[in-house]
Write a structure and sequence with these properties.
Oligomer: single chain
CATH topology: TIM Barrel
Largest sheet: 8 strands, parallel
Number of strands: 12
Number of domains: 1
Number of helices: 17
Strand order of the largest sheet: 4-11-10-9-8-7-6-5
Structural class: alpha/beta
CATH architecture: Alpha-Beta Barrel
CATH superfamily: Aldolase class I
Shape: globular
Order of helices and strands: HHHEEEEHHEHEHEHHHHHEHEHEHEHHE
Amino acid sequence: MAVITCIEDFKPLYRRRVPKMFYDYAESGSWTEQTFRDNANDFRQIALRQRVAVDMSGRSTTGEMIGQPVAMPVALAPVGLTGMQCADGEIKAAQAAEAFGVPFTLSTMSICSIEDVAAHTSAPFWFQLYTMKDEGFLDALIQRAKDAGCSALVITLDLQIVGQRHKDLKNGLSAPPKPTLATMANLATKWRWGAGMLRTKRRGLGNIVGHVKDAGDPSQMMAWIGQQFDTTLDWNKVARIREKWGGKVILKGILDPEDARMALSIGADAILVSNHGGRQLDGALSSIRALAPILDAVGGDVEVHLDGGITSGQDVLKALAMGASGTYIGRAFTYGLGAMGREGVTRALEIIQNELDISMALCGRRSIAELNRDILRVPEGFSGRWE
C-alpha cells in the first residue's frame, strides 16, 4: 500500500474502494461548482510568513472549542451518509475522533443513528440538526440527542431548499443504493465495501427509518425528506429551537455579517462560517474570504468557527491566524474513512495535526493562543470591497 503523507494521498484509494455515487457525493458542489472550488483555492492565495531563530521547543496544538478541550481546534464536520462511505462509518469516525481528542459531529442524515453512536463511544459528541416541517419529529430528534448526552447542537441554517448537485441527480443517489444496472455494475467492483455492508445492519438513514411512519422503504424515505426542509425557517424559529435544546448551540451556515449579528443576538455559543461545502448557493463567497467581515461584525462576542476547503494543517493554521477559534473538516476525514476505515480517519487527523504543528513552528509560534494575522501575507482586498 502507498505511504499516506497528505490528505490528497487518500483519494486514489478512496476512489477505488467506494461506490461512484458516494465518491461523487463527497466530491461535488452545486451547479457549476465554482464555490466548491473556491473554498480550497482561496486558501492557497494566503501566504505564510516564515520566521527563524525563534525557540520552537515546548509546542502545543491544544485549544478549546465552545469550552471543550481539544487536541487541536479541528472538529469532524457533519457529513450526511457517512455510513455509506464505509460500513458503520459514523461509529468509526466518532471513535477515531474520541481517541484523538477532537469533537465529532453527527449529521441528521447519518446512516448510524444517534443511539448507535452513543452506544459505541464514551465521550459526548455534537449533533447537527436540520430544521424540518414535522415539529413532532424535530422535537423527538432534540430529545434523542439530549438522551444520548450530546454536548452541543449544531443547527444548519442554509438548507431550507436543497441546492442542485448534478452528480447526485445523475447517479440517482440513495441510501441504500437503488439496484439499477449501472449501480450494480459499479458495486460489483467494490467487493471490500460490499463485504462491509453485508456484515452490518446499518444501511438506511438511522435517525429517520423507524422514527417516521411515512418513511419506510428508500423511495418513501427520500420523498419524505425532500418535502421536509423548512422553507419558513426564520430567526424566531431558530431562537425557539435553541430554547428547546437548552445547551450549547452552534449556528452553521453563516456567510454574511448581518446574519452573524442576528446569530449573536439570539445567544449562539458559536457561529460556523460555512457555505455547506459549496453544495448550496453556487457563486457565494468561499468561507475563508467571508471570515474577516464576520469577525468584525461580532467583535469577539461569540466564537467564530469555519469550514469549507480545509484539507491540510496549513489551511487550519491560516483560518486560525485569520481569527477563527475553531475549524471543521469534512471531505478530509471522509477520504480517510472510505479508503481505510477508522484507521484512515485517525491517519487524516495525524496528518493535519503534524502539518499544523510544523507550519506553526516555522512561522515562529509555539501555541494556538499565539496565532494571529502577523504570520500571514493576505492579498490586498482578499475579503473584498463590495458595492
